[in-house]
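In this supplementary section we document a worked example of the pipeline. Step one takes a protein sequence of length 411 as its only input; no multiple sequence alignment statistics are reported here. Step two produces a three-dimensional model, which step three serialises into structure tokens for compact storage. The input and output of this example are shown verbatim.
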Amino acid sequence: MLLAILTGGPMTAQPAEVVAEIRVHGNVVTPDEELLRLAGIQVGTPVGSGTLDEVAARLRNAKRFQRVEVRKRFASIADPTQIVLVIVVDEGPVKIEMTGDPDRPTRVVRSRRWNLLLLPVLNVEDGYGLTYGARAAVADPAGKASRLSFPMTWGGDKRAAAEFDKDFDSGALTHIQAGASISRRTHPFFRQDEDRDRVWVRGEREVTHGLRLGATGGWQRVSFLGADDKFAHAGADVVLDTRLDPMLPRNAVYARAAWDHLNFQNGSAIDRLALEGRGYVGLVGQNVLVVRALRDDANKPLPQYLQPMVGGLANLRGFKAGTAVGDTLVAGSAELRVPLTSPLRIGKVGVSAFIDAGAVYDKGARFQDQSIAKGIGGSVWFSAAFVRLNVAVAHGLGASTRVHFGGSVSF
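The serialised model returned by step three reads:
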């Protein structure tokens, strides 16, 4: 009424939009009639604010299309109420088959062949040596952002596995992993082969950017030093990571706490707790000071194949990897990282100066009674998109001078 008074005439209702025409594109296997039936739309249907989303949702729920898009177009400039709906779908890979029928010699069907990717695996781990092999991977076997892969490696880590992982945009979990593997590698301290069969599943949730919660469950069988052992395990962990560049972050922190409960075939149970913290402080220019502390402990004595080791690039440079083993590991380090290249370059080269300290001891012993080993030295490192290399020369105080090498190529 007020609008009519202000305009000086009667108020008229806005004409309703209706579907004047429907066009479909991209469907090769699904006939137009079947697609329109699944869409639940026909000529003459009124078009509301949610019509396009409803049509798209019905088509996605049919689970026949990898991608669905519904667009709105005007059929006439003179009459804006006449709407053309354009439905675009992607059915994924298709192929042509011979039917043997003279009247219809060919037919188009969905292709169930997976695009197999083959990627190299190459890494050097201090104490285990060079590991090399390949990973065969299938992209999106269970929808978008999923992967099924089959890594096979030889050398320091002889391993064959089947692994599945998938990311989620919403829901309780943002990432899941599952897999099974068999492996053999030589223990750096005992110099004996360790055979391990493993089945596991893991779920993660990114609470906020940089804060991640995770839970893992699985079963393992281990043959080591002439004995066989089996155990089930379940655990949870929380990670806070504010680093933008893991190799050269500035004014950032990384913190991780992980708890695992192990149930062995003989009825015994052990709880493990691993704590790690790293702080990155930006200094003058690109220089960064890195301070690290870690502790790995258990409430009972651990089997020898599960005991943490001290030495090497992992925690105590200047001593060989696997210098000593025990139920409790305590270590720390301080390192000055000096980049030699521009931060705008994809590949970064730099040098470091560091001091490490650490000790490992059996359950029941006290930390204050331990002799803390120390190592000092320097390193040269290179970091790029999928390549990382690190060469360190360090002197163990009261021991010898050692060269440590580590690197990986990952995709």
